[in-house]
Amino acid sequence: MIEATLCFPLRTISRGDDPTADGDDGREVLLIEKRRGLGEGWYNGPGGKCEPGETPQECAVRETREEVGLDVRDLEKAGELRFLLDGEVHTFCHVFRTRSFTGEPTPSEEARPEWVPIGDVPYDQMWEDDRLWLPGVLEGKTVRGEFRFEGGEPLDEAAFVDHDLEWDVSF
Ligand SMILES: CNc1ncnc2c1ncn2[C@@H]1O[C@H](COP(=O)(O)OP(=O)(O)OP(=O)(O)O)[C@@H](O)[C@H]1O
To answer: Domain Nudix hydrolase, which positions (predicted)?
Structure first.
């Protein structure tokens, strides 16, 4: 089983009295377009696999720095997601969000970062499960989820079959 993390940096930008502004109140999330490996070509949060001896928080901080050059702090745990492939746990993913960070998002070999208004998150270019849990996470909720995939490796070519979700959990 792979233990992995996702980190969603959040900010609120001032849009003044822009009449074209939508209902996001200027709220944005930093997504990455993944350039290689699992989920290549799709959008997701910065994140990746935990190294031996590393806590999930430490992993999320390290991966966010490595992938987009942002130093995140004060991570808030927002979710725990279990991805099953053909009945076995493939990946256990810890999800974090934060409004505290320093640095400027910078592209790396692994990822191209992009600030996205939370109403414009490109769910049709993301893992199929993201549309089920990410909107709630971006609204400040907590979630525990299980998502079942079938069809063998690699996970990003398997079929998403079904899921269970529990909201407002404590970690
Ligand atoms: C099944 N549905 C899913 N929905 C949303 N997100 C998913 C996911 N399944 C995996 N993820 C995330 O995708 C990243 C891959 O991690 P990552 O370690 O970068 O993979 P990759 O194979 O590129 O690793 P290396 O760069 O070789 O270490 C990692 O954040 C992990 O939490």
So the answer is: 1-139
- The ranges assigned to domains in the chain are 2-11+26-167
The atom of ligand 1 lying closest to the CA of 149 is: 1
By alpha-carbon position, which residue is closest to atom 8 of ligand 1? Answer: 127
Query: What pTM does this model have?
Result: 0.95
Q: Kindly tell me if the per-residue pLDDT of 15 is higher than 90.
A: no
* pLDDT computed for residue 20 by the predictor: 63
CATH architecture of 2-11+26-167: Alpha-Beta Complex (3.90)
CA–CA gap between residue 16 and residue 8 (Å, rounded)? 25
Q: Indicate the top mutation candidate among 6, 35, 38, 149 to test ligand 1's pocket, ranked by most ligand atoms within 8 A of CB.
A: 38
